[in-house]
Amino acid sequence: MRRKGVNYSKFGYIFTFPFVLAFLIFSLYPILYTAVIGFTDMQGLIPKPIHIMDNPFQNFKDLLFDNVSFRKSLINTGLLWIVNFIPQIVLALLLTAWFTNKRLNIKGQGAFKVLLYMPNIITAGTIAVLFSTLFAYPMGPINSIFDMLGWSDAPIFFLQDKTTARGIVAFIQFWMWYGNTMIILVAGVMGINPALFESAAIDGANGFQTFFRITLPSLRTILLFTLITSMIGGLTMFDIPQLFLAGGPDDSTLTTSMFIYGQAFKGSYMYNRAAAASMIMFVIAAILSGLVFYLMRDRDAGRMKKAEKNFKKSAKAAAVREV
Amino acid sequence: MDHNYKNGTVTRKINKTIIYIVCIFLAVLSILPFWIMFVNATRSTAEIQSGLSLLPSTHMMSNLRVLLDKSFDPIQGFLNSFIISSSATILTVYFSSLAAYGLVTYDWKLRKPFFTFILCVMMIPSQASAIGFYQFMYKIHWTNSFLPLILPAIAAPAVVFFMRQYLLATLSIEIVEAARVDGSGEFKTFNRIILPLMMPAVATQAIFAFVANWNNLFMPLILLTQKEKYTMPVMVSLLRGDIYKTEFGSIYMGLALTALPLFVVYFLLSRYIIAGVALGGVKE
Fold it and tell me: Which family does it belong to (chain A) (predicted)?
């Protein structure tokens, strides 16, 4: 194919080699190692030789059936993700619809985008500590605001209540990420063929119809991307809950990542249990990603392919018959 | 007819007013916490406890003194974070561009499987391998070293993916062939011709890699136990500790110091960052 008969294909391997090497050493090996540790009795600060337990699935069984804290952490992680993702995607879609509507022609979009995205850039740890200070009891900025607006007579101890604490963590996540989601969606809408909108306008579609019949279906790939990245991010949620309340009150904001960190690195050195928990998390991530891909798969494309195949088959059959 | 038309514009005006109010409210919501943070960094603890103020006071220096007296060393933290983030960023963008170029330009047998592999790797949460990674680093005595925070940056699947999309859209194979005719080696072609062509993509990905590394808390928290190695986010976690319990002024000061560099970078580069988020998200 290439002129002069020089074969360059080996450079494909050479150029991707550093990536593969770094992946093997720093990702694949640690993942396999983690998986193995999950089956061992590795505990304590002093390293011991690896010893697979007589009952290899003991750690997994203990975690899933006997460990209240772990189950709670899974539920919390799911809950915190759902409670922050639904308002996040709804608000992002709403803002997208407003910002991309040419008839509305919203001024100062650039400034709004810059400001709404801003929380995303600041270190999550800083934001977590900031919010815990803002909600301080008995006197903190939020309590002052409530007092000024006459919403409360006595200072409220926000961070003692489980629901409020969870709500605030979910709110911080929402607040940090909706700007990001909005920018991605706006870019997605800009990428849609303008002719589609024009023909919808000619056909007399109103704003709602255009949005639900044209904008949303065209955004499917981007929504899939947002959903998956947000899901993986939600599953590994760590910085905010860790530095906000360190999992409290009463484990109500304990996430799976924090559970893993707590088991292995906060003085108890239960590496085997932490490793087993990591593997459970890994499997959940894989299942969820697979599920989302399956649900959001391009059904039309699949049907087209099938139809094409059938057509070819019958054509072939016809050809054979003719001969 | 005329009446109808008027009605339409009136509704649109009302709608637009509502939209502007919502947007302004959201913008204020984005700014307010940080504003309170910067203002409170200049107020004494007594002032902070007496109520909210949106105007700065005069206790900046005393807050700073209290903060620095208690093992909080923002300059060291800044330096550590900077070394780690900039090295990791350089590795990420260079090797990802290289891999993406290899993926786009050459016709090799494993090209498609490699691409699928990258897509799968993107879905792996980094915490899933943390225990094994820590044990591994412990064994080769790399804890309290910056290397385990820098070297893994060579394999950044999401960046390879992005660079591939960019190259597919912009690279014409004629350039590479012309370089070959002129006697340029493959590596030289990449370094001298392709990499400069990729600069717009490299710049946006560099910003994101830098911010992500700068903000990373989990890995440094696990790996770094010596105070003089702490990065900025790990230092923030100190502010939650008991030593600052009643020193609200200096807590805000510490937070403001960790956020300030990012604010400066953000407002200088916000246009590119926004464009980068947009580009990075729209993957087909």
Answer: Belongs to the binding-protein-dependent transport system permease family.
User: Left, alpha or beta for B144 (phi > 0: left; psi -120 to 50: alpha)?
Assistant: left
Minimal CA–CA distance to B96: which of B185, B165, B11?
Answer: B165
Cross-chain CB nearest to A34 (options B132, B222, B277) = B132
User: Which among B155, B157, B273 has CB closest to A26?
Assistant: B155
Contact B208, B276 (CB under 8 A): yes
Q: What's B258's DSSP letter?
A: H
Q: Are B65 and A158 in contact (CB under 8 A)?
A: no
What is the rounded CA–CA span in Å between residue B190 and residue A16?
13
Any idea of the CA torsion for A114, A118, A121, A126, to the nearest 10 degrees?
Answer: 170
Distance from CA of B233 to the nearest CA of A (A): 6
Residues from chain B that touch A126, judged by Cβ atoms under 8 A, are 233, 236, 255, 258-259
Q: Any idea where the domains of chain A sit in the sequence?
A: 69-304
- Longest distance between any two alpha carbons in chain B, whole Å: 81
For residue A54 the two structure tokens come to 């007589």
Terminal alpha carbon distance of chain B: 45
Lowest mean pLDDT segment, chosen from A21-30, A132-141, B6-15, B117-126: B6-15
Q: Which residues pair with A267 in a beta bridge?
A: none
A240: closest CA among B225, B54, B105, B237?
B237
Reading the block at residue A55, the tokens are 């009952």
Answer yes or no: are the C-beta atoms of A243 and A129 closer than 8 Å. Answer: yes
**Confidence (pLDDT) at A191:** 84
Q: Which residues have C-beta within 8 Å of that of residue B80, sequence separation ≥ 6?
A: B146, B229, B230, B231, B232
Q: What is the mean pLDDT of residues B204-212?
A: 88
Q: Evaluate whether the domain defined by A69-304 bears CATH number 3.40.630.10.
A: no
Say if residue A4's pLDDT is above 60.
no
Q: State the Cα angle at A185 between A183 and A190, rounded to 5°.
A: 95
**Per-residue pLDDT tens over the stretch B111-168:** 999 998 888 888 888 888 888 999 899 889 998 999 999 999 999 998 998 899 889 8
Q: Is B80 left (phi over 0), alpha (psi -120 to 50) or beta?
A: alpha
DSSP 8-state code for residue A151: S
Nearest to B20 by CA among A103, A110, A88, A107: A107
Q: Answer yes or no: do A123 and B233 touch at CB < 8 A.
A: yes
CB contact at 8 A, B39 and B31 = no
Supply φ then ψ for residue A217, to 5 degrees. -60, -35
Alpha-carbon gap, residue A157 to A135, rounded angstroms:
8
Q: Is the dihedral of CA B171, B176, B177, B178 positive or negative?
A: positive
Inter-chain touch A30–B106, beta carbons under 8 Å: no
CB crowding A63-76: b at 16 or more within 10 Å, else e: beeebeebebbbeb
